[in-house]
Batch of 4 targets.
Target 1
Amino acid sequence: MARVVLVGNLAQVTGGVAEFHLPATSVQELFRKLGELHPALAPHLETGVAVAIDGQIFQDALLEPIGTDSEVFLLPQIAGGSGGQVLQSDISRRAAPRQAGENVGM
Amino acid sequence: MAKHHIEATVNGDVVEFLCETEETLLDVLRDTLNLTGSKEGCASGDCGACSVMLDGRLVCSCLVLGCEVSGRKIETIEGMAKGESLHPLQKRFLEAAALQCGICTPGFLVASKALLEKSPNPTEHEVRYWLAGNLCRCTGYDKIITAVMDTAATMRKG
Amino acid sequence: MGEANGHSKTNGHSYVGTRQIRPDGVDKVTGRARFGADYNLPGQLIGRVLRSPHPHARIISIDTSKAEALPGVKAVITRDDFADQPSEFIPAGEMMMNYKDVVRNVMAREKALYEGHAVAAVAATSVAIARRALKLIDVKYEVLPHVIDVVEAMKPGAPLLHDDLFTVGVEPKPEKPSNIAKRVEIKQGDVEAGFKKADVVIEREFKTAPVHQGYIEPHAALATVSEDGATELWTTTQGHFIVRAHCARLLGLDMGKVRVTATEIGGGFGGKTVVYLEPLAIALSRKAKRPVKMVMSREEVFKASGPTSGATVRVKMGATKDGKFVAAFAELKYQAGAFQGSPVQPGTMCAYAPYDIENVHVIGYDVVSNRPKVAAYRAPGAPIAEYAVESVVDEIAKKLGLDPIELRMMNAAREGTKAAYGPKFGPIGLEETLNAIKKTEHWNTPLRKWQGRGVASGFWFNIGGETSVSLTVNEDGTISLMAGTPDIGGLRAALTSVAADELGVPYDKVRPIIGDTGSLGFNFLTGGSRSAFSGSMAIVEAAKQIKADLCARACKLWEAKPDQVEFSGGYVKPLGALAEKVKPMSIADFAKVSGKTGGPIGGVGRINAQGAGPSFGTHLVDLEVDPETGRATILRYTVAQDAGRALHPAYVEGQFQGGAVQGIGWALNEEYIYGSDGKLQNAGFLDYRMPVASDVPMIDAILVEVGNPRHPYGVRGVGETPIVPPLGAIANAMENATGIRFTELPMSPPKVLKALKEKGLNKA
C-alpha cells in the first residue's frame, strides 16, 4: 500500500485528513481512488497538483507508476504543465464565439 | 505642418529623408531608414540602447531630433563591421559571452568603440563609468567590462 | 557527486561543457537580430492604448465616437470587443491565473483597478493620429478610494477591489468578500513544541516593495488578421505557444489558425509570460482589416505590466545553543496587484527549503490591491521569503557566536532531507556551494571599518514541462535544429552543443532556430529554469530516432542484421566481419541517399520533461557604507551555485552574474514609489534606479556541478536561483557594516542615512 500525504491546503478539502494508505499502481489510479474517497478533492487533482513519488517530483504525469511501498506526496503545482490541453478542450466546447460587433469571419 | 527635408550621412552613405518636427533621430533611423539596430528602451536618454555617434560624439539618438542632423555625420551599429570582418569589439563580445538577450548590445558596442577611440588604455573604473549610461539587465556587466578591456589590450598590440 | 549517464561522446571531441560562439551571436552584435519592435508589415497601422489615470474607479461609460471619426483612425476597441470569460484557473508558468481576470487585465470591464489599466485602444495610420485619437475618447469614471499596501488591503473596511472575492483556504468560509484571495499553509512537525526546546528564538518582521523585472525591451506585438480569420502575430515573449492559447481563448479563435512567431526577446525574467498587447493588436487588426503594430513606452511598461509583489513577512526561528534549528515559523503577506495570483505559494514552499528543520509552519496570504497585476519575476516568491529567513539565520549565528557558514552547513538540506513542502531531496549541491564559498580568498580577506560581509543561501525548484524539438538532416549532411522555447540568454548555443555531441557532427554544422507555433508541437514557455534542461532532453530523444533510423537504413543497404551495426561518432559503423566488407557511412553519406533509402531523415523529441532537479546557491558579498550619505557600495561579490552540468559554462556564469546584480538592485535601490493618490511616481529608468556598470564590481562565479541523475547530461536549471540569495546576503553585509539590522527593502541611501542618524552614527 502506498503512503500518500497531502501537502498544504489540500488537506483542508478532506476535512483535515492529510495521510492515506491506498493501493494504487499509477498516479491515475491514485487520483481516481482519492477522488472516490473525497469527491471535493477531485477537481484539485485534475487541475493543479504535482506528485512526488519516492522523492522525485512529477508534474502532469498521470501514467507514472507507483510502487507497492512508495511514498507519495501531493503538492500544489509549482509550475504550469499542459496549459495548452486545458484550453484546447475548452475551445471545442465553446465553438461559437460570443462576440459583440465584429464577425470573426471563420 | 509640413515635414522637414533632411540630408545627412549615415554610416558613410548620404541619405535624405522627411521627418516630423517631433520625430527623434532614433525614430528616423528605425522607422524611416529601416536601421533597426539602434533600440528604444526608454525614450528618455536613461538606458543607452539607442546610442549612436553624431559628428564623432556619443549621443542617445532618442534625445536628438531628426531635423537637427541636417548635414551631419551619423554612425550606428550597422556601420561597425567592415564588410565580412567584425570589429574587434564585436568579435570579443561573442567570444566572451558578453551578451545574453542582446538588446543592449548595439548600444554597448557603439559606446565602447567611442571609449576606445578616445582612451585606448582605460582602467576598469574608467570603463565602468564610461558605460554607466548603458543599462543591461541580463549580464550584471561583468563579461561586458572584461570584453571591453580585453579588446583594448588586443587593439593596443596591433 | 552525481554522474551524467547515457549520452554518447563523439570521437574524442565534446562540445557540451565548452564555450562555443553562440550561433545567433553575429546577428546580435551587428544589429541585424530582430526584436519585437523591429518587425514591420506593409500598410501597418500603429496601435495605442488609453489607460486609466485613476488607481480605482468604476467605468460608467466609454464614448469612442469622436475618436472613430478622426481621419486616419481605422479601428477603436473597448471592453465591448472582448467576450467575458467564466472563472477558470489555468496553470501559467509558476503561478496560476484565471481567465476571468485575464480578460479584465487586458481590457478593463466594470472597473479600472490600477493607474495604467487599459480602458480602450485605437489603430491609426500614424503615431501622431493615434495619440490624438486617444485624447478624443471620453471615459466617465466614478473614482473610488484605493489601497496599495498589503497590510492596509487586508484590514476589514479597506477599499474592496472585487465584490466576488471570498478568501479560499480559511474555515469557516467567509461570508463577506475581502481583498484576501487565498490563504495557504504548509506544516511539518510541531513548531510550538520546537520553540520550547530552543535556547534562542528570533522573531522579526520584514517589508519589501514591489520591483519590476526591468527588461530593457518594452512589450511589442505586430498582428495581422485575414478575412478568413487566419491570424499571424509576432511578439516578444517567453512563450509563444502560451500567447497563442491566450489569444485564441480571449478572441474565440481556433489555435490552428493563429500562428505566433516569437521574435528575439530583449529580456523577460518572467514578465513576458503573459499577454498585454497581443490580444489588443489582434482585435484591432481584425476590425481594421490591416496589420497593427503596438509597442509599449517605458512609462507604460512600469505602469501597466506586472512587477513582482511587495510584501510583509514575519519570521520566527528557534535554535538550540549548538546551532541546530528546531523550529521555524513564517507568515507571508504578498500583494497580487489588481487580480489574485501572487507567488505566495512558492514563497511558502521555498522559505525554509535550504534547511533540515523538524518543525516548520509557514502561512501565506495572497492579497489584491490597486496596482498592476503581478507577473512572475525570476524565482517568484522566493527572494522575498529568503531575504527574511536568511536575515534571521544570520542573527541566530551572531547570537550564538557561530560562523554563519558553519551554522548553515550544520542545518543544510542534503540528499534524503525531507523538504518542508513534502518530498525528500535527491542529490543536491547546497553543501558544496557553502564549502566553495568557504574556500574562497574572498571569504578570507580582512575588512575595514564601515565595511561588512554577508552570506546567504537559496534555492529554486526548477521545472521540466512539455517540449517539442525537431532535428532535420539536410541533403548535405548539415543539421537543422528547431526548438520552441524562446532563447532569452544563450539557449541556442547550449542546444547546438548537445545536438552536435549527440549526432557526432561539428558544432558549426548544426544551425538552430526557434520555430513558430505552426512549425512545432506544443512547447511550454521559457521559464522555471527549464529551457536548457528540457530542450536538451528532447534533443536526446530526437537524436535517438535519427540514429536508430540510420542504423536501420544501413542494415538494408549492407544487408546486415541490427547487431552488426552501431552508431558512433557521427557514423554508422559495421561491426565484426562486416567491417571487412563495407566502410562506415557518415550522416552526410546517408543524406545523399536519403531518397533511395526511405525518405528524408529527421527526428522529433516530444516530451513532458520530468526530473528537474533543484539548484542551490550561496552568495557572498562585501560592501562599504558611506556614513555621510548612506550609500552602500558593493566591493566584492561571489556566487557559488549548483548547475548539475553546465552545457555552456559562460552562459551559466552569465545567469549567476545577472541574477546577482538584479538582487543587488532589489536590495539597495529598486522600488515602486506611490503617492498618496495611488499613482506611480517613478515610472522611468532615471528614478526607478537599476544597477549600472559603475555600481557593481566583477561578480565571481563558481560553478558547482552535482549531477542531476534524472537528466541524460546531469543538467539542472540555473536561471532563477541566482536572484534568491542576494537580498539576504546584502542585508547581512549591511548589518555587519553598520550594526543595524535593516528589515525593510530597499536599503537605499536615504533610508540608511536616516537609520544611521537615529543612532548618531552618520559620521565617517
Note: Residues 424-462+613-758 of chain C form a domain with the Aldehyde Oxidoreductase; domain 4 fold (CATH 3.30.365.10).
Target 2
Amino acid sequence: MVTSDRLDATFAALADPTRRAILARLATGEASVMELAEPFSMSQPAISKHLKVLERAGLISRSRDAQRRPCRIEAKALEEATDWLESYRRLWEGNFQRLDALLDEMKLSGKGHKRTRKQGGS
Amino acid sequence: MAHVLTLTTPSDREVAMTRTFDAPRDMVFEALTRPELIKRWLGVQNGWEMVVCEVDLKVGGAYRYVWRRTDGMEMGMGGTYREIVRPERIVTTESFDQSWYPGSAVGTVTLVERDGVTTLTLTVLYDSREARDMVLQSPMESGVEAGYQQLEKVLASLQAEGGGAS
C-alpha cells in the first residue's frame, strides 16, 4: 500500500530537474557525492541537499560504510511513482475511448437521437 | 473515426484537453453526470473499478468518486459543483485524497455540438504552477520532459534485472 505521504515526498523529489538527472546518473551505477557533483557543475553541498531530498523520498539510499558513502538508486519508490504517472497519462485516452463506447450504446438504445454516424471499428 | 485527444496549456496554471465525440451533447452531458453512466467509463481500467460514485448535481452539491484496484489499493477524489449549465457547461472543484499534486484544482467542462458531433473541452486550473507542472511533467506529453523518459528507461531496466512487480 502506497501512503499519500510517501507519494507526496516522491513527487516533490521528482519535480526538480537536477534531482531527476541525479537519478538518471545513478541508474547507471553507484556514485559518490563528488562524482555526482562533477557533471552538474554544482558544489558538493548543493548536491548533498538534493541527495537528502531524494533519500527522504526513498528514491536513493546511501551506504553507511567507508568515507566515500556511495549513493544508489532504490527501485521500489521509483516504481510506485512511475506507476502512478503512467496510469495518469493513460487515464484520459482510456476514459474517452470508453466514453465513445458508452455513447454508441446510448444512441443504440434509442434515446430519441438518430444522428448516429456509423463508422466501422475504431 | 480517430478522435484525437489534444492537450494544451492555456496559461501557466492550466491544462486543457479537447476531444470530439460522435454523439449529441445532451447525451455526453448525461454520461458525465449520471453515476450509473460515470462508473462505466471514468477511471475504470487496468483493474480499477469505481466503488463509490455519488453525485449531487446542483450548484454547491458535492460529488465523490472512489476507485479500487484488484489488489485493494484505493484512490479517491471529490469536490463540489460550482456551475451547471445543462447541457453545455460544468464547473467543479477537485481534490484527490492521495494529493499527487499539491492543493486542489478547478475543472471546467464545455460541450459544443455541431452536426451531431460534440466537442468536449476539459480545462483544469491548478492552485499553483508547481502543481500544474507536476501534472505536465508526468509522461503525459512524451518528449516534453526528457528526464522522465530517462526515468522510464531506468525503470524498465530495473524491472528487467530485478524481476519487479507486475
Note: The longest strand of chain A covers residues 60-62.
Target 3
Amino acid sequence: MAAPNAQDLRQLYRHLYLTRALEERLERLVDQGHIAGDLCRCLGQEAIAVGSAWALEPGDWLAPSIRDLGALLVRGLEPREMLLQYMARTGSPCAGKDDANHFTDRERGLLGPIGPLGTQLCVLNGVALAFKARGERQVCMTYQGDGETRTGASHEGLAFAAALRLPMVVVIESNQWAFSTRSHREAAIDEWTDVARGYGVPAIQADGNDVIAVFEAAREAVARARSGLGLTLIVAETYRMLGHSQHDPQAYVPPEELEEWRARDPIDRFESYLLDRHETADGLARIRSVIDSRLDQAVDQALAEPLPEPETALGHVYAAPEVEPAPWTRGAPVGYPDVATSIVPTRMEPPRSL
Amino acid sequence: MKETTYLEAIREALWEEMKTDESVFILGEDIGTYGGAFKITEGFLKEFGPDRVIDTPISEAAIVGAAIGAAHMGFKPVAEMQFIDFIAPAFDMIVNFAAKVRYRTGVGAGLVIRGPCGGGARAGPFHSQNVESYFANVPGLKMVAPATARDAKGLLRAAIRDPDPVLYFEHKFLYRRIKEELPTDEEILVPIGEARTHRPGNDLTLITYGAPLYKAEEAAERVAEEDGAQIEVIDLRSLRPLDIETLVESVRRTHRALIVHEAPRFGGFAGEITAQLCEEAFEWLDAPIRRVTAIDTPVPYSPPLEDYHLPQMEDIVTAARWLLSY
C-alpha cells in the first residue's frame, strides 16, 4: 500500500472526526436513557484504530478490542449499525442479542470480540490459519489494550500466531490504564515492545496520537504479514482521556496527566498537519458539518427503529432446531393444577399405580 | 465386515471425513509427528500434510480459538484435547465464544472438540475426569459420549458435519477393550440427539452413557438371571440434545428409573435427567428415581481408591434391586 495521498488524508480526517462525533452522540443517548448498557469511549485514542485499519486491503480481517470504533468505521461499518447495536434495536448487527462492538460480519471481515479480553486474537488466528491453508494473501489485524496483554488468551494467542507464522498484526494500545490500575503495575517490563521478545517476533513503536505514524507502522507490519513473515506487534503509546466506561469518573487519574495529553489530542494534531499542507480551516469545518448532520439524521432514524420482539430471544442458539420455551416459562402453553390434561398432552396408558 | 476397536472407529471416522471433505482438518498437541497421545492420528500427517494436521503449542485456548475462527471461514476443524481434563484452559473459548457466537452474531462455529475422558486407567485426578456437567448448562453446545465402536464412528462423523460446536467425549477405558464387527461397505452415521436401547426390558429403565454401559449390561444380566427381572438399558449416546422422548417412553412403560454415570454425583448429569423425568413421567413412576454415580471426590490415583470412587457393577445391582422391590 502506498503512502496516503491528499484524498486519503482527507478520508483519515473524516474517520477520526466521525469516530469522535459518533461516540459523542452515543454518550448523549446513554444520558437520555436510550442505551440500556454501558459505553466505553476511545476519546484521545482515535488515531490508533483509524491509522492502523487504513493499512488493510479488501478481504483482510480485523478484530477490534474495546476502544476501536474507528477501525470498524474504516472497514465499512455504518454509524447507523453502531447506533442500533448500542440501542439494542431489531435491525442491529446482533439483533439485540449483544452490545458494543461484539458482532461478526464475514462479508466485511469483521470479527467481534467478547467480554473476556484477548480471546478475539485466539479466534482471529483461525481466520489467519484459513488464509494460510488456502494460500491466500490476506492478513488479519487485531487490537489489545496494554492491560489486555496480561490475559492468558493473549499469551496463548500470541504464542500460537508466532509459532505458526500466521499473517497477523497485533496492535497494543498502550493507554496507560487497565480500568483503574496503572498498566505498568500489571507487568514487570518497562516497554510494551518487550512483550514481543518473548514470542520471537518484532515490535514497532508508534506515537499513538499521530495517525500518520500509526499508519506507517501498520503498513510495515501488514507488509510483513502479507509476505509470509508472520506476526508483528505494534505498540502505540496514548492515553485514556475518559474513565474505563461511562460509569467510571476516573477520580484516580491525576488531572495534570490529562492536561498534558489533552495538548497532544490526535484530531487537533492532525488538523494542524493538514492545515500546514493543503487544507483550509473552512474545508475541514465543511467535512465536520457534513458528518454532524448525517449523524444527527442517523440518530433520529435509529430512535424510530423498534425494539426486538421478546420471543426472538429463542432464536439462533443452534442452527436447528430452534430452542423452545421451557415448560412453565414464558409462552409455554401450560395451565395450572389440572395436570392430567395440561402437562402431558399426548398421554399414554394410565400408570399402573393409579 | 471388519473387527474394529473403539479407537480404530474414531480414527476411521476422522480419516474418512478428511478424505472426502477437504475442509476437515485436525489440530492439537502432538497429533502430527507423534500421532496423538493414544495414536488416534498416527499416519495422518503423512497422508494429509501439515496444513491439515497441525501440531500446536500447549495452548488449549488458542487451539479452540483457532478452530472457531477457521470454522467461521468455512472449515470443519476437529480439535483434540490430549486428555479431556485439559479442556479446562479452553473453557472460556468454549462457553463464551464457541457456544454463543451463533446466537450473538448469526455466524455459527461448526467444530468438534474431542478428547479422552473417564477413569479406570489409573491415571489420577487430572487424566481421568468426565467433564460433561461443566458444559451441560451452556446453551449452544452439543455433547456426545459414545460407548460402542459403531457409535464412536457414527457420532464423530455426525459431529464433524454438524453446523454447531460439538464436544465429543471418547472414553479412554474403551479404546482398545471394545471391539465390534463393522461393515466396510456402508457409511456409518449416527444422528446426534438419539438414544439407543441397548437391552430391552419392561421392569426398570437404566439410563447411562460411556463406559458404565458395560457395567450396566453386566448388572442387567445378573438381575435377569438371579431375580428374573428385565432391565431396559438405554445408552444415551448424546447428552445434549437429550433424547428425552425415548427415556419418557421407557419409564412410562417400566415405571422405574435408574441413572448411572461415571462423573461425581452432585450437580452431575443424572440430576438433569431426573428433573426432566419428574416433569414428564412423574405419574407413571412407582419408585423414586435413583442415581448410581462416582462419589463426590476427585478421581484418586491408587487402584483401591479409584475403584472405590467409581460406580461399580455391584452398586448398580444393589440400586436396581432396591428399585424393583420398592
Note: Chain B touches chain A through 53 residues (CB under 8 Å).
Target 4
Amino acid sequence: MSLFDTLFRRRDGSANAAKTRLLKVLVDDRYKLTPEMMAQLKIDLAEVFARYLPSIDPDSIDVTVQRGESNDHLQADIPLRRPSNT
Amino acid sequence: MTRVITITSGKGGVGKTTTTANLGTALAAQGAKVAVVDADIGLRNLDVVMGLENRIVYDLVDVIEGRCRLRQALIKDKRFPDLCLLPAAQTRDKDAVSADDMVALTNQLRAEFDYVFVDSPAGIEAGFRNAIAGADEVLIVTTPEVSAVRDADRIIGLVEAFEKGHPRLVLNRIKPRMVSRGEMMSIEDVLQILAVELIGVVPDDETIITATNRGEVAVLDRVSRAGRSFSDIARRLAGEEVPFPALEEHPGLMERLFGMFGRRPRGSER
C-alpha cells in the first residue's frame, strides 16, 4: 500500500468493522468461547488479580485471542493504576 | 516427485475452479505434466471452465467403479498435450466415492504426472474430506469478505486436523481501490485474521469472466492482471521466488502525479 493510501485510508471504513467482527466471531467458532463467556472471564480475572493488586481497574482489562501459525494465545492486558507517591 | 495439491475454500463461489484451471494451465505452459481432477461430484464445472466439456466420455466415478481405465477418462487439453482433466461425475449419489478411492486414484495419477490438482467442492462434508484425502499440500482460496474469511478459518482448522500440514492462502478478487478507501479488508488484515502463509493475491478482474465465457483460461491472456497473478502463484508453487507486486487497479493519483514527470513510483509497474 502506498504512503498516499496509508495516509488517507479511512479508519472508520467498513473494512475495520469487518475485521473486528471477524476476530470476535472466530474466537467463538474455534474455541466455543462466546462473547458472554469472554465478559465473565474478564470479571473473574479482575477478581483474582485484585486480591494481590488493589490498583487494578476491572473495566480496563482487555482479553483477546492472538492468532499464531501453530498456536493461538490468550492475551490479557491488565493496566495498573500508578500509585501516587504523595 | 509428484505433488498432489488440493484447492479448497469452505465457501462456494470464491474461485476454486478458476484457480485450479489457471494454476494447472500455467504449470503445463511451463512444461510440467499436469492433471486436474474435478472432485465436485454431482456439480461438474472444471470442464466448462477449461472449455473441454464436449470431449467427456468417462468420468471420475467410472474410473473408481472400474467401468473404464484411468487413461480412457483423462481428457487432453486443447493447447497442452501434457495437461489432462479428469471430469467429475454428474451422478447424484454422493456416496459413489470414498476417501480411500480418492487416495488410490491420486496415487495412480502420481505415476504419470508432475502435478495433480484436485478441485474440491464447497462445504466441510464428505466431498471436501475426499478431496483432501490424497493431498500432499492444500491451497485455500478466499475473498476479502467476512463470510469467505470465516469459512476459510474453519477449513484451515480442518486441514490441520486431518494432518495435511499448513495450507497456503490464495486471496482472490481483491479490489485495490476499495482497500485504499478502507472499505475492503486489506491483504494484511486477512493474513492477521487467518495466520497462514500467503501464496498469492489475485485482483478482481473482468477478464476472468470473459475468458471463462469462451472456455479459455486467463493465465494465457497476456493482458489479464488476474492471469498474471495466477502465473506468479504457479511459479511460487514450483519453488521460484516471485516478489508480490503492488496492487494497482487503475493509475492512482500518485501515479498520475509521477506520470507528469515522466516516471512511475517504485513497485507500481503492474
Note: The interface with chain B takes residues 1-2, 4-5, 8-16, 18-19, 21-23, 25-26, 29-30, 67-70, 72 of chain A (CB under 8 Å).
